[in-house]
């Protein structure tokens, strides 16, 4: 059975020991702390009684640490440093403003996560709490502070502003690209088309080439855009790269571009907030999102 731990002296008494050691006398420590000489003496005496040894040698000019006192003081000052560091870390974490940001999973994987540290790490640091979901979070009701939505904008009961315009071009696996080398648009469209829940991009690309797109049984739909790209890599059909959103994926993937022609997508990402949003941390995150999107547009 474990023995009961000895009662520790109050932290104030240990701090008083450090104060006396720093000032070299009970009188100077009393003046610095606003306590009486007697209170200083009683606090030091309580710690010495608890330890069972003297911490200070008393002499006419003041006090000096004994050998035991020097060793004990080193341990106590180290312990106070640990406490102070923990308190500072907790204080900073608690003080940092937090902003809740809702995005679809594909936007998080293709664009946001690689830029999240940049979004958080400006001055001031802002704790960005990311929620990934396919549904539109209710910004107006306060479910999140900011949402990044894909569409034409103009949603009711919220404020929205364009974040990122996209251009579209078709890609396929190396094997399918080899079979389609030199093919016309009509010949390309004999292949299965891969898309997410919205055909707007494909309609825009086909329309720009004078082709009217109709839903076809051989086309494949996936809920998440990253799965669309993965399906194209697997040779299941042709996908549209949405640049700059998927530009980094494209650079790392096996996908081959099938056409130099690009079409501006009618849809784009928007930053959505509640009406009359004025909180400084929310506005700062929005400004950082725009700055990163502008950087992408330049590069």
From TrEMBL:
<feature type="domain" description="HTH lysR-type">
    <location>
        <begin position="9"/>
        <end position="66"/>
    </location>
</feature>
<dbReference type="GO" id="GO:0003700">
    <property type="term" value="F:DNA-binding transcription factor activity"/>
</dbReference>
<keyword id="KW-0238">DNA-binding</keyword>
<dbReference type="GO" id="GO:0006351">
    <property type="term" value="P:DNA-templated transcription"/>
</dbReference>
<comment type="similarity">
    <text>Belongs to the LysR transcriptional regulatory family.</text>
</comment>
<dbReference type="InterPro" id="IPR005119">
    <property type="entry name" value="LysR_subst-bd"/>
</dbReference>
<dbReference type="InterPro" id="IPR036388">
    <property type="entry name" value="WH-like_DNA-bd_sf"/>
</dbReference>
<protein>
    <submittedName>
        <fullName>Gcv operon activator</fullName>
    </submittedName>
</protein>
<dbReference type="InterPro" id="IPR036390">
    <property type="entry name" value="WH_DNA-bd_sf"/>
</dbReference>
<dbReference type="InterPro" id="IPR000847">
    <property type="entry name" value="LysR_HTH_N"/>
</dbReference>
<keyword id="KW-0805">Transcription regulation</keyword>
<dbReference type="InterPro" id="IPR058163">
    <property type="entry name" value="LysR-type_TF_proteobact-type"/>
</dbReference>
<dbReference type="GO" id="GO:0043565">
    <property type="term" value="F:sequence-specific DNA binding"/>
</dbReference>
<dbReference type="Pfam" id="PF00126">
    <property type="entry name" value="HTH_1"/>
</dbReference>
<keyword id="KW-0804">Transcription</keyword>
<dbReference type="Pfam" id="PF03466">
    <property type="entry name" value="LysR_substrate"/>
</dbReference>
């Amino acid at each position: 059975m474990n023995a009961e731990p000895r009662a520790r002296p109050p932290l104030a008494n240990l701090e008083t020991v450090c104060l006396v050691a720093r000032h070299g006398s009970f009188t100077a420590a009393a003046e610095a702390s606003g306590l009486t000489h007697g209170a200083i003496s009683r606090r030091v005496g309580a710690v010495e009684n608890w330890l069972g040894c003297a911490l200070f040698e008393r002499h006419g000019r003041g006090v000096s640490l004994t050998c035991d006192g020097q060793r004990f003081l080193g341990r106590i000052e180290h312990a106070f440093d640990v406490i102070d560091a923990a308190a500072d870390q907790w204080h900073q974490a608690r003080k940092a403003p937090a902003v809740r940001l809702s995005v679809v999973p594909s936007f998080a994987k293709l664009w946001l996560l690689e830029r999240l540290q940049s979004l958080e790490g400006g001055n001031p640091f802002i704790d960005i709490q990311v929620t990934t979901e396919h549904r539109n979070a209710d910004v107006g009701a306060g479910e999140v502070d900011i949402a990044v939505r894909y569409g034409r904008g103009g949603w009711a009961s919220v404020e929205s502003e364009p974040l990122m315009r996209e251009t579209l071009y078709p890609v396929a696996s190396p094997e399918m690209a080899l079979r389609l080398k030199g093919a016309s648009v009509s010949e390309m469209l004999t292949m299965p088309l891969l898309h997410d829940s919205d055909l707007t991009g494909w309609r825009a690309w086909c329309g720009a080439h004078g082709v009217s797109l109709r839903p076809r049984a051989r086309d494949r739909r996936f809920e998440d855009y990253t799965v669309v790209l993965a399906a194209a890599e697997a040779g299941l059909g042709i996908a549209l790269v949405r640049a700059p959103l998927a530009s980094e994926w494209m650079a790392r993937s096996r996908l081959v571009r099938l056409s130099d022609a690009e079409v501006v997508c009618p849809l784009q990402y928007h930053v959505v907030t509640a009406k009359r949003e004025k909180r400084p941390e929310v506005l700062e995150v929005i400004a950082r999102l725009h700055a990163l999107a502008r950087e992408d547009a330049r590069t």
